[in-house]
Design brief:
Elements lengths: L1 H22 L13 H13 L6 E7 L2 H8 L1 H17 L6 E6 L2 E6 L4 H16 L15 E7 L6 H17 L4 E4 L25 E3 L3 H8 L1
Parallel strand pairs: 4-5, 5-6
Antiparallel strand pairs: 1-3, 1-4, 2-3
Helix pairs in contact: 3-4
């Protein structure tokens, strides 16, 4: 009958959606992978063009993650990534999305969020992350931190350019000492140099500083 056919069609559609969702998940962190990232961000940009709402995005990078791998091993490094992703997902709304951008770098998309609210959200996530003590057998307890670069999806430029802006803000945060949130501004014309420091993994948390960094000052400090 027609009703049975419609039911089968609906079940098949649901099955395909579930399979697609599984395929688009990062197997380690269970965050979304990059397969659907541009599609999602373009959808949000379309809403921004219609002035439906503002969408904030943040590029996030675990500070000195290579040092964690070198000191504790890649198995512990993977566990840190999983713990980080779980923490982020547990603090996000149902319509927010976290994408694994590559390695220890993630992109967070928060629809219906103005820049200031997005900044405050990333500051809180970073502060909470720095307070999580990681216990692993055979190793002393340690913590880790993250740097955040924040911007809004600009309806008047390409989505890729908005991502680049968040990425430049992220690198400005790392160049300024890591463990902080930086908002993109036009003065951030390119990635500043990143000062080499010892691992930020340590006992106890650290405060999160927020700043909009003037690029010329950053160059002077880190050239």
């Amino acid at each position: 009958t027609t009703a049975v056919k419609e039911m089968r069609r609906g079940l098949l559609t649901t099955k395909h959606e579930l399979q697609r969702s599984i395929l688009n998940l990062d197997p380690l962190t269970e965050t979304a992978n990059r397969a659907d990232m541009l599609t999602k961000l373009r959808e949000e940009q379309a809403l921004a063009k219609r002035k439906a709402h503002s969408t904030c995005i943040a590029m996030v990078d675990l500070d000195n993650f290579k040092s964690i791998n070198d000191k504790y091993g890649h198995t512990v490094g993977d566990q840190v990534l999983v713990r980080f992703a779980h923490h982020m997902r547990s603090r996000m709304r149902s319509h927010d999305t976290i994408f694994r951008y590559g390695g220890e770098e993630f992109l967070i998309c928060t629809p219906n969020t103005e820049l200031e609210a997005g900044q405050a959200k990333m500051e809180l996530l970073g502060k909470e992350l720095a307070e999580i003590v990681i216990h692993r057998e055979g190793h002393p307890p340690f913590t880790t931190t993250a740097s955040f670069g924040v911007t809004v999806i600009d309806p008047d430029v390409s989505v890729q350019l908005s991502i680049e802006r968040a990425d430049k803000a992220l690198y400005a945060a790392k160049a300024a000492g890591r463990n902080r949130t930086v908002i993109w501004s036009p003065s951030l014309t390119k990635r500043p140099a990143i000062a080499l420091t010892k691992s930020s993994a340590s006992i106890g948390g650290a405060s999160i500083e927020t700043s909009i960094i003037n690029f010329s000052k950053s160059c002077a400090l880190h050239a």
